[in-house]
Fold these 2 entries.
Entry 1:
Amino acid sequence: MNDKNIMESHMGTTAIKISARDVQVYYGDNYAIKDVSIDIEDKTVTAFIGPSGCGKSTFLRCLNRMNDTIDICKVTGSIRIDDEDIYDRRVDPVQLRAKVGMVFQKPNPFPKSIYDNVAYGPRIHGLAQNKADLDDIVESALRRGAIWNEVKDRLQSPGTGLSGGQQQRLCIARAVATEPEVLLMDEPCSALDPIATAQVEELIDELRQSFSVVIVTHSMQQAARVSQKTAFFHLGNMVEYGETGQIFTTPQDPRTESYITGRIG
Amino acid sequence: MTDAIQKLEKKKSLLQLDARTRTRNAAETRFKAYGIIAIAFGLLMLAILVFNIVTRGAGAYQQTFIALEVELLAGKLDKKGNRNLDDIKKVSTFGYTPLLSNALEAKVAELGIETDLKAKKMVGILSKSAAAKVRDYVLNNPNKIGETVGFEFLASSRVDGYLKGRVSRDSIGNDKNISPAQLDLVDALKAEDSLAKHFNMSFITGSDASDARPEAAGMGTSMIGSFFMMLVVLVLALPIGVAASIYLEEFAPKNWITDIIEVNISNLAAVPSIVFGILGLAVFINYMHLPNSAPLVGGLVLTLMTLPTIIISTRASLKAVPPSIRDAALGVGASKMQSVFHHVLPLAAPGILTGTIIGLAQALGETAPLLLIGMVGFIASNPPDSIATGLLSPNSAMPAQIYEWAKRADPAFYERAWGGIIILLVFLVTMNTIAVILRRRFERRW
């Protein structure tokens, strides 16, 4: 981590990357997200915490319009990335998702080779001019995914043959290979053991240098370890949002306090 | 203190079964026994079926042949003597019969067999196809006229039946096609090894034959008919079915219209096949004026019948692909179509292929709709010379051919019906085996 980055985040001069205003999400009759407004900073890890079913994953999936794949889901309000409304009619979700990468709860590598897993995104977006280019992109993505050393000798073996932790880092590598600006992570460590979790957390901290990372987690310790900013969701409302240290030490809202002390959840 | 002792006495030993456990175990044992009985019953029925088919059908693959040296008399076949093919063609099969009777008479004399039969009657033990066989040979080799050529002729179906035990001297009382004297001749020829049963390839490759000569009938042409129908079904049903399923499963909005379509597809799968047959008759033949009895029409009708099967199995295999794969593709910025064609479809392919093969196997064995579009009946056409004639010229299909034989009076045809069923079953078992192998080979890889 370079000093400039630390300086920036401490001095609060980082730019706003994502700005959401009055976001409402309905799943059919179910009112899932109520009036959420939040500013997510660039080159920062922002954690969404909250009990199950509080809407944190739903809100995360609004940020790259993955909710579009669910027919009954309706989103209102505005979400702007780099001051462009991503729900504008002119925005193609496919282009948006190239800019806003996503890592899912369960490691979900394609049943293809490790190389093809990472190369798929760059291929469909035409990021590589030739095979050598693609090789470079794959290598750098796997390095950024902190998995290069483990797989460099078996790039052609299937991605599904890796261990859970390796698969998840492969998925992270796959997500960063398309050069996104924002990386969304939906409980990326919930299917992993503590050692793999530690590796992924370390990785998240490194990724912060290049991306704005938004992570949904059930583990408050994890939020405290990896994030600079934390948002607490409860029953579809965003209750509190602030510096991670402040949320965990001096929460303003009684609900936040109850949750982090284990009284609700 | 006493309480504690009583409690101790009440405690049950693990080494003894209590009444409840005993009843439960008994119920389980009974249930297993029912299952075994059901499976054993099924296997027994299967064994009976296979045994019946094989014992009754095997006869069709063995046919009685008589070897004869036929002198191709120039005086009879080419009276002008100029070997002009057009002139030779003028001699019909009737003109060849004397050659056969001469040959048979010579053979009988050579072997020293005594018989009261006139040469004309002797020929009755040969198949009516024998003369045609010589004629075909002469037309192909006109230069052989005047020479003596060895042939192997089919014996008539009565003679064949006599050797197979289907026909006996008692059973031919009023039969004009065979007499006891002819059977004596057959016995004598058999004793001299001039007449023998062996494998009959023409049953597999040949075409249907008229009522008078069941011994010459074969499955070949109807197999070609079935092949062209399956070609039509595969070319139409697979792409249409897969495209429809992909659209319904991956792209279509979930609303009442798609619900109705879904319900109707399931209903279509249960519609009796004869309904598709009458639909084909009304639409393809009466309205669109496609030719009667053509494999193209049969294929179209069977396509309609197979589509629901393919759609249902394709949708099931698309559904079986975990949503996480779709998410993963969308997550790296693939479009919906890319996620389907790059990731979902390849994973669903083995299931789709399995469903398609099973659908094809169903269509291959389907008879009822073919009855209505005229693909049943006496169709003894020659093998088609191009794909277009194969699709458009009248033909039969394997199950229709079997039905056609089974309803004819002569028991010799009945035997061929069973023989045809063996061929049909070999095809079906092969197709289903391929389906099973595909499923095994490409089992879920996630």
Entry 2:
Amino acid sequence: MQVTSSVREPLITGGKTLKDVTHDISRQVEGKPSMLWLLALLVSVGALALGFIALAATLWEGIGMWGLNKTIGWAWDITNFVWWVGIGHAGTLISAVLLLFRQKWRMAINRAAEAMTIFAVICAAMFPIIHMGRPWLGAYWALPLPNTFGSLWVNFNSPLLWDVFAISTYFSVSLVFWYIALIPDFATIRDRATGLRKVIYSALAFGWDGAAKTWSRFETVSLILAGLATPLVLSVHTIVSFDFATSVIPGWHTTIFPPYFVAGAIFSGFAMVLTLMIVTRKVFKLEDYITIGHIELMNIVIIITGSIVGIAYITEFFIAWYSGVAAEQYAFVNRAFGPYWWAYWSMMTCNVISPQLFWFKKIRTSIVLTFILSLVVNIGMWFERFVIIVTSLHRDFLPSSWAMFYPTWADVGVYLFTFGLFFTLFFLFAKFFPVINMFEIKSIIKSSSTKQSK
Amino acid sequence: MERDKNFILGVYDDEDVLMDAVTQIRKTGVKIHEVYSPFPVHGLDEVLGYRRSRLPIAAFIFGLIGTTLALTMQFYMMKFDWPMIIGGKDHASLPAFIPVTFELTVLLAAFGMVGVFMVASNLKPWGQARIFDLRITDDKHVMAIDLANNASIGEEKLADVLKLTGATEVNKKSFE
């Protein structure tokens, strides 16, 4: 019954049937965990535990534990915050924007990419919360709650407050979008399971019945959520960039920031999706679902967004010169040729030059090279945020207060903590949740799968 | 015979065969209870004669509530309850209120719509579905016909119709 298009490359290889899809994805959830998985989880939990020492020390002693000084008030914390939020953006882009554009190749990767979004946003949100110093009082500083000062409200003119609303809305809407799509797949596992697993997945499946009426409503909900999530994801990194752009610090006060940050976010996010998916497809033997074609398409997104980021770097420099403002010009010359030149040129190499290698088909269809370059892009994007934040601050308006930033063990440890948290959550997800959206794959198996060999 | 208890089920392997079957069966005057599928079949709701979902309207209304709530809150807090001079700007600075207004609009629209969807489709944690056939979450489409609603046609004839339209199996299912 299957029809293979002669125009498009098949999205699913290996002549899979509907039953094969159910089996291939559900067996990861049902089978005993592999040694490799246990080892990976152990390393992640180890990083989490080790990082927790730094986190606890920071909460106990205060953020004086970090390498911040009176000139550089923001450094690794906000760098990590922006980096993690940026990584999250690819998940929403894949699941919402590509849904609106009817890009069916998203179906193999959207579940894991959305999970990545949610975990990355959790890691991101940790940094501003810790940076409050006394996070247990933070609710009064961040949310408009009635308080004993009269009520003295939060400042709605501040981009930092906009961030609170943007990040929390982004997190909760992404979570709902992700969970709604998980319900039918939990029902699949429920209907195959017995015993305790059946009890657990019954609870998670919310009483899904698969009726045509429910599916019809479900499709409507998905479409509207995608429509809402698309401007939402663009707004989130725009608002993150406002944290800098609305200030009057040379190097931050630029109108190019919102589009430049959004492109950078998608760029780094796709790199992280590639890092995770290349490992996941190998470990869980999902090569028929996440094909070289998928990897190639993601690499093309990386070329595009990487080039946008590259143009933004050059535009920034041009505008700094063209503005004729000496402070602005100095900020940029100092970025490239000052004491932090190595950070700037690491960023340029990793973000502007390395993704251009994907113009070669051999490179963008090579799994090993893609994996390496995806790590390079992630490193580059961390440096981008570090460069923007630290180099713009470290030589401020008074040369007598010029300083350098040196991270302490607590800076490194808290960053390690978020890595541990992210990978622990991701590995737990990969084992106990269906990593590929089964029902979406089933809906395209007739039109986009290779012919059955049987 | 009591309604909503005894069903005859047609099992279909292929979504296109199923779509034709639904069209043909409805033409003969049989009332289909519901069709259960492992994945969304595009156009199935139309051939079944379902109305378009009104969930977008729910989303719009909840979004509107979000917008109103956000603007009211910000103007009340910043302009009326405790006006403060911040950077010499106007207390009521609409442009500065747009980001939070947008976020709350999206938040309420999304949560409101999903809430309505869950109530309408009876989805809740620990919810129990009435399962006609375990394979409907795997690889089979199942058309359920309520015997009580089609008493005039008769069970045997219904089975024939199902088989004739391409059902690979015809089963019976009763619920207490």
